[in-house]
Design brief:
The protein has a 3-stranded antiparallel sheet with strand order 1-3-2. The protein is of the alpha+beta class and 63 residues long. The radius of gyration is 12 Å and the shape is globular. It has one domain. Bound molecules: zinc ion. The site of zinc ion has 7 residues, from loops.
Length: 63
């Protein structure tokens, strides 16, 4: 196990409801690197996560 591998984060550890929806929609269960629980997770290196992050940044900073 290396630190450069996937960094999954689970529905409980994301704050934004849009992330929660995205993660539960992926249906991907794994160990969360944040809380060490087995739950629905998203790989923070995945396209879905990056796209969502970009969208949220635009949303928050373009008012
Ligand atoms: Zn977690």
């Amino acid at each position: 196990m290396t630190e450069e591998e996937n960094i999954p984060i689970c529905v409980n550890c994301v704050k934004d409801v849009r992330y929660k929806k995205l993660i539960s929609g992926l249906n991907n269960i794994d160990l969360c690197t944040c809380c060490q629980d087995k739950n629905y997770v998203i790989d923070t290196d995945s396209n879905e996560f990056i796209q969502m992050t970009k969208a949220l940044i635009r949303y928050h900073y373009n008012e």
